[in-house]
Fold these 2 entries.
Entry 1:
Amino acid sequence: MLIQHLSQQLRERDAQSMRRRRRVVEAPCLPHLTVASVGRDARPLLAFCSNDYLGLASHPALGAALAEGAHCWGAGSGASHLISGHSRVHAALETDLAEFLEPCIPKARALGFCTGYMANLALLTALGDAKATIFADKLNHASLIDGALLAKAPMQRYAHGRIDVLANQLEHCSTPIKLIVTDAVFSMDGDLAPLPELLALAERFDAWLIVDDAHGFGVLGEQGRGTLSHFGLRSERLIYMGTLGKAAGVAGAFVAAHGTIVEWLIQAARTYIYTTAAPPAIAHALRTSLQLIRGEEGERRRAQLTTLIALLRQRLGEFVAAAPQRGWTLADSSTAIQPLIVGGNEAALALSAALESRGLWVPAIRPPTVPAGSARLRITLSAAHSAHDVLKLADSLEHAAKALA
């Protein structure tokens, strides 16, 4: 019965153009890749789909640091952080991250996690007890939604970015602990959360602001400190989650917050306590990544990314405006995430396939990841792209759209 049931659900997904399929990448993470898929030979593609925003994933210094870390520390940690898996290099990385975020969070302490998903589950389940209420933006990442659902605290969701709705919810909340939870950069739209207004509400209603800055850390703010720095925020009420497998180019995540909050996570966060620590070599490589992010090379790469974003928005803005009858829109985003909203699932898949036939890899994102009727191409830029790459994407979109008309 199970196989028949699952097979029927898979057929239904096929009928709705919602089946997800994996690709096999046969090269390091770079804009120009060799990619294989089911039933097709490997072929070169120009990719606009990774979250390697600074182009550090294949940086020689990080590869060398990872190899050096493995030479010094071996391949694995061998145990959880609370048994014997917490090495000196893990501790050093946490100190580096805390110092890096201190301009935004006074006396911050940092705690490392294997993934951002695990960090968000830890935050919501460990802090969201029966004395708390969680207030969540409706477009939050799945990890934040899942963490809130697993927490003992009730959750109230507010319409995306609606400060007025959130203020009303906070005003009528009777629990002593209030947790406002939001993405900083929304991963499918590329827009920024109104963090200054959210922090003002946290201060007004004695709440805490949990910020998932997966797509802002390393990219935005002074020296790449992220979205808090971008907005010039500094407060002990901030609880910050940053990922280390996107702009940082390696793997993992961390939480930076008041020392008491971090100490409680160590005691109560199940996704921290009951899992093997990441290999020390990863932490060793991440210390080098942080140096690159906050140094001159990081500044150059952020400047390059900013230039490419402006170029793409100019060309795609003209492209969309030239054919309003299609009903396509370019999301209002100033970040490296530049979604082209097409509408229907089949239309988005067809456009993605047409681009692939021209040698470009731009994935179609469909429900349930995005709301029904808003399927899109999620275009992501990297500092490793060139202006020529961006112009090729714009020209190819024009040709693909005409061919599908």
Entry 2:
Amino acid sequence: MKKYIPLLLLVVLASCGKDFLNKQPAFFTDALFWKNATQAETALAGAYSPLQNEEALGGEDWCAFECFSDNAYLNDNGYGDYVALSEFRANQNTMTGDLCGLAYNEYYQSIKRATDVLTNVPNIKMDAAQQKRILGEANFILSLGYYELAIRWGGLPIYSSTDPSTALTRTTEAETWTAIENGLKEATTQLSATHEEGRPGLGAAWGLLAKAYAHEGKWSEAQNAATQAIGTGASLTSNYADLFTIAHENDSEILFGLGARFNNYPITSVLMLPNNFWGDLQPDEPKGEGWRLVSATLSFYNSYQPGDLRKAATVAQRGVDVVTYNGLTAILQAPNNLSPVVCVKYNAPYKEKYTGWASGLNVPALRLADILLIRAEAIMMQNGGGPTSRTTGVAAAAADLNLVRNRAGLPSIASPTFNDLMYERRMELAFEGGDRHVDLVRWGLAEEVYNNLPAEGNYKPKRTYVQAKHRLMPYLQNEIDNSGGSIKQNPGYSGGK
């Protein structure tokens, strides 16, 4: 987005699957580029690559955003500024070199490259079906980037390849969400239900559009978009834990999974694991190579209903639960973890052998289960249920909610309430990019939930959340400074109104 971002960092595209992620970058100029179909594919691959970096969708910020909720916290990894944000103590955001600062840059790099594709590829003489698919993927990537930024910061600069001044002014929140809608609507006319691994298909476009509508409170539109996504042929994977294994990372439930490269990026699979599984009880090495960036709270661990199969697939408690890592099966010790609970959702690639900091496991960015629950929510909101009537049963929402619930080993609910929906979304989507916090904020329930939680150890202190201020993060100060003040701070923070 910013005027100092390079024109294009391109990754050469291979013929199929996620192989296109394995090629080395190359640099081009407009004088030599935008001439043929091969270059169009190369430019599209360049739009994907920032998403895979250590921050953004492929790493630290996607994982760490979970810590804003009551599910998780950051271990002592030297990210004090980000911890202050997640504890709602920060009045300014000066982070430029890690976590949300780099994530902001990486999402905007992806946005810029996707916009360049949308600007230039229509002028290339090439196969019409291929051109249509490239434009559909670019519209999805563009909208995904804006979505991830908007749920954090609200109104955004909307990049234009022909007007550099757009980098210096934030649009309103409504204008930003309209831009997200428009890109996804266009993508729904360009993508097909079938798609290669690591790429979005029609289900992803409709699914993300449903989530955008839900964020805006457009419930009829959210229900329709979710219905369209569900109707593209995707189905739930029968075993929840399988979703987070390399063998099942391309199941149809994964509407969009960010493609991973072994021993390269993204690194999501290792970020939440402990750096010592066994303490001194096992002589075998390595005892653990996890980054332990993010861990689970004990209160989250204790929130599962009896019999919920998602618990063992998501979290493990020190001294209680048996886990398998690097060929060993034993009771978890994790002595260096601040809480007694760790997230094991992405441990599957390391069960037999530790294979390095990037296991090659795709990032499950958008799943069918999420969209089923969005449709259930939209039905509830139109039939007397919702955040202000959480105990009202809505039988019409039962079918979608129970598909997700039954997969988790739990009995059906004939007339589910909004409280039931809150439980299912929390447990189903835990440690997948921060949906718990985003949900509580958009429902207007974050203040009630967070402020009523007692402190848990010294890692999750008592927090004070104010909806009018903390529903958005403070905008990055360097972006405000670089704009000469034309970009304004969010309300409630230093310099905001």
